[in-house]
Amino acid sequence: MHEDKRDGTRLWREKLRYFGSHRISLRLMFFLCFAFIFSATVLVLHYVQFAQEDKALRELSAVIPVNITDEDTFPAATAAPLQPNQSPIILAQYRELYEQNTDMVGWIRIDGTKINYPVMYRADDFYLTHSFDKKDSKSGVPFVDKRCAVDPFGTNTIIYGHNMKNGTMFADLLKYVNEEYFKEHPLVQFDTLYEQQKFEIIAVVKSQTYRKSDRVFKHYEFLSADNTAVFDEYIANIKAIALYDTGVTASYGDELLTLVTCAYHTENGQFVVVARKHSEE
Question: Please, what CATH class does the domain formed by 63-277 belong to?
């Protein structure tokens, strides 16, 4: 009789163990299914958001005429000299966009790439996470470093843009790691609101954001030059770390354009393209 009781108790414990482990397995399966559905939903939502942001920017770019070529000759400057006390006139193709958002200070385009965007400026990093219409955005909009002068533009205008996985914003800059790509795309068009401008690439650089205490050349600290020595020192430093020789350099008095996006060759990596304004002189 005692044996029967022990057998019954053992059988009951085995049933409890079986159903208990079975419940654990069901919970685990439920959790994994939920995690999968949640992850898939997040990915789909991100994709939809990126697609919507890209579509909105393509609609903006559709109103801007294509006006850059990779020819060796350049058109004459499009901005007529201002008369005394005369305010500059916004170029016709940018008036409507400027009325939509007065933070717009220009337009950047590189022929043969996806880079074809408005350029914004505020005294903060607002457009790192906001769209042209000031809504939350993972793509953001290219924007001028808040330390730079924009009215008028200074010696070195630094423009930041995200390196998006879908190939938008400044992702195409990383293709300049290949010298042949540079030869096919040597020009950058950066129009202000008042003037069409072309820039010739002088250096392509892999860099990073350094600690304040690091005693190294920090390209992003160069914003202006009061004399030839300061300017020439910057050019020598940027040329020294360039990935290859573009055959183009700059002299004191030239206006520079620096395009920056994030890169992953090192911690806090940056990929940098530096160009000089083309002059007819």
Answer: mainly beta
Distance CA 171, CA 128 (A): 15
What is the pLDDT averaged over residues 157-168?
A: 95
Residue 254 scores a pLDDT above 90? yes
207-214 long-range contacts (CB < 8 A, ≥24 apart) are 207/241, 207/269, 207/270, 207/271, 207/272, 208/266, 208/267, 208/268, 208/269, 208/270, 209/268, 209/270, 210/268
In this structure, the strands spanning 256-263 and 143-144 are: unpaired
For the chain, the domains span 63-277
CA 129 to chain centre: 11
The DSSP bridge pattern shows strands 256-263 and 198-208 to be unpaired
For residues 105 and 121, is the Cβ–Cβ distance under 8 A?
yes
**pTM, full prediction:** 0.78
Query: What's the CA gap between 257 and 9, in Å, rounded?
Result: 82
CA atoms within 13 A on the CB side of 258: 26
